[in-house]
Amino acid sequence: MNVEKEHVNEHFLDRLIHEELERSPFDRDMCTRFPPEPNGYLHIGSAYAIHTNYTMAHKHGGKFHLRFDDTNPLKEDLEYVNAIIGDIKWLGYDPGSHIYYGSDYSETFYNAAVTLIKRGKAFICDLSADEMTAYRGTLTEPGRNSPYRDRTVAENLDLLTRMRDGEFPNGAKTVRARIDMSSPNMNMRDPVLYRIIHAEHYRTGNEWCIYPMYDFAHPIQDAVEGITYSLCSIEFKDHRPLYEWVLNELDIAAPPRQREFGRLNLTGVVTSKRFLRTLVRDGYVDGWDDPRLPTLQGLRRRGFTPSSIRSFVEAIGGIRTESTVDISLLDHCLRQDLKETTTSLMAVIRPLKVVITNYPEGETEMLSVENNSDNKLLGSREVPWSRTLYIEREDFMEEPSPGFHRLVPGGEVRLKGAYFIRCEDVIKDPDTGEVVELHCSYDPITKSGTGFTGRKVKGTIHWVCAAYAVKADVQLYEKLLLEQDIPKTNDGDWADIINPESKVIIRDVLIEPSVADAISVGVGAGRDRRYQFMRHGYFCVDTKLTTDERLTFNRIVPLKDSWNRK
């Protein structure tokens, strides 16, 4: 997919809204909203919806609201509210003072139900959920009217009052719209507007025991807040007639308009709340902030930047239908964001000991190494060098394969920012034959930065000074699921599609000492620190596992795309 910025201005909603606003259909300024239900955490698909609502409002000089659709006390919690607010602000789409709660409109919902009943547009129904399904009909057959559909206005108002007073148990009665049981749109076949739920609400306590359905609450909330555009994903398109019906029957002047955009999916990534909840509940991941999950909490802990996520959703542009985007685009946006802003450090993940036999014992010198080869403005740092070093085990090969240009017996390489070294001797474990140590010599005239123009070497490898190395744990991530296309339904048995190598933990990785500032500044301040570990990728201090004594790093992304490797 092309990620050029010019695509940002090609959003079809932008053109549609511009044309409609030119006809001045509203008596108020442009206003949009993002209405999450606080029953889980936001994910990367949510970021697309937030971005769409936020940018459309600001492009047209309007306001953006965050409104919690908290009208189901069985699922919602303050934990999710706080997480959602934090995630939206972290992304850079701060609603400011415009944070609202559907539960604050409870009296308004109730009065709207009273109005509809008085106008003969709603009634109290005693059908059970199973009976209602049977009466509803099918896509090819019309439904049947409820036997309670013709109750009088007085009877309906009396029953509604008694519902509010808590006289009836859960499921005993509902408030239903009186529309058309033969409508080809199933959503218009006398839908439920209100149901009874005896449960404590996280904000209103036990004040209410009847709660509106989303399709009833949504247009009323929009009208109360002065929303002009309800921008929502494509699965709500068939709900639009009901949205408009509610506003029309309540005589809302200059009503808000619902407009839809495509739903975003990512290859090999689960964005269904139900599936995510299963993965968390059954222990396939270690929480909603597991760095392998596409939740904003997970991406944030892993080390993704807000700007990289914003670039990602901008690059996608306007999508009209349900669309699947390759996950590698998100990684690409992150690499573009980090390549000129992060310090490159030397980290040895699988160490092999190297002794520089002709360097004096007990002596240490400081070498200057550039912080970022793509951005000279980041300057340089001092790195210690001494007799005993560590290099990557994969940077030595006793019997080199064709094209191997790193260290070999009798061969020479440059150590990054330091000297040429030559492998003079290979020390092996006498029992296993494993290479455990290399004895090398160094050439002092080849020091980096001195203008040495003598012999050339084909390879440059990174290293760490043994005496000053910082030990850390590193978590390497690959895609969580083996399959690119996630099944639409799943019986809960995820074991067959979970990638067993989605997280690999490597203990006691050796990192050059300048990384210690990630601890020295304090756990709180150091947690957003990102680095490029040479040749290994971009890494971030893990927000959950790092302590003042021990660093844990998450690999945010490799230096090159690895998602599509077979």
From TrEMBL:
Family recorded in the similarity comment: Belongs to the class-I aminoacyl-tRNA synthetase family.
Gene Ontology molecular function: any one: glutamine-tRNA ligase activity
Keyword Aminoacyl-tRNA synthetase in record: yes
Enzyme class: ligase
Domain Glutamyl/glutaminyl-tRNA synthetase class Ib catalytic, residue spans: 31-339
Keywords: Aminoacyl-tRNA synthetase, ATP-binding, Cytoplasm, Ligase, Nucleotide-binding, Protein biosynthesis
Name the record gives this protein: Glutamine--tRNA ligase
GO cellular component terms, semicolon-separated: cytosol
Taxonomic lineage: Bacteria, Bacillati, Bacillota, Bacilli, Bacillales
GO biological process assignments: glutaminyl-tRNA aminoacylation
Organism of provenance: Paenibacillus cellulosilyticus
NCBIfam families: glnS, PRK14703.1
Residue ranges constituting the tRNA synthetases class I (E and Q) anti-codon binding domain according to the UniProt record: 460-542
Domain called Glutamyl/glutaminyl-tRNA synthetase class Ib anti-codon binding: residue spans: 346-443
EC number: 6.1.1.18
Statement: the UniProt record of this protein carries the keyword Protein biosynthesis: yes
